[in-house]
Amino acid sequence: MRYDDTDKKLLEILSEDGRISYVDLAEKVGLSRVAVKDRINSLKEQGIIEKFSVVINSEKAGKKVSAFFEVDVEPQHMQEVAQNLADNPSVASIYQMTGPSTLHMHVLVEDFRMLEAFINNELYAVDGITRVESSVILKRFKSRTGYKL
């Protein structure tokens, strides 16, 4: 597995502009276009780069309510509940946490009516969920997408 300072520099540049050309990347790191392409392919093959994507402002795209949930789940239902929730289009991210069998989840919905429907129909109705705690985001100061070097 190769990962050096040049790779780190490539990742820093890509994290700011994932659409930058290989030519422009090569110029910034002092390599040829072919060498940059090979390094990026290697970073993808190693799993360091998982995928390239676009960051969407959820509020401007119509998802005006952003909420975080702590969901306690009976251990024997953890995988099933986590997968069920992960498949829900309103769930932006979901993680299993340490401590009791807890899922930490970020949900994006259009309005508070949709948040209420999500809670009542998608959480309270699921077998195995024992506790739900939610917090609605009032203001975003910083949002992180992926690992920052």
Describe the structure.
With 149 residues, the protein is of the alpha+beta class. It has two domains: 41 residues, Orthogonal Bundle (Arc Repressor Mutant, subunit A); 72 residues, Alpha-Beta Plaits (2-Layer Sandwich), CATH 3.30.70.920. 36% of the residues lie in helices and 21% in strands. The chain contains five helices and four strands. A four-stranded antiparallel beta sheet has the order 2-3-1-4. The relative contact order is 0.15. The model has no long low-confidence stretch (mean pLDDT 92).
Mean pLDDT: 92
What is the β-strand count?
Answer: 4
Low-pLDDT segments: none
Named at the architecture level, the CATH assignment of the largest domain is: 2-Layer Sandwich
* Shape designation: elongated
Pfam family, one: HTH_24
Domain HTH asnC-type: 3-64
Organism: Virgibacillus sediminis
Protein name: Lrp/AsnC family transcriptional regulator
Task: Annotate the secondary structure layout.
Blueprint: H1 5-16, H2 22-29, H3 33-45, E1 65-73, H4 78-86, E2 91-97, E3 102-109, H5 112-123, E4 129-136
Antiparallel strand pairs: 1-3, 1-4, 2-3
Summarize the structure.
This protein is α+β, with helices and mostly antiparallel strands.
Features:
149 residues; Arc Repressor Mutant, subunit A; AsnC-type_HTH_dom; Alpha-Beta Plaits; elongated; single chain
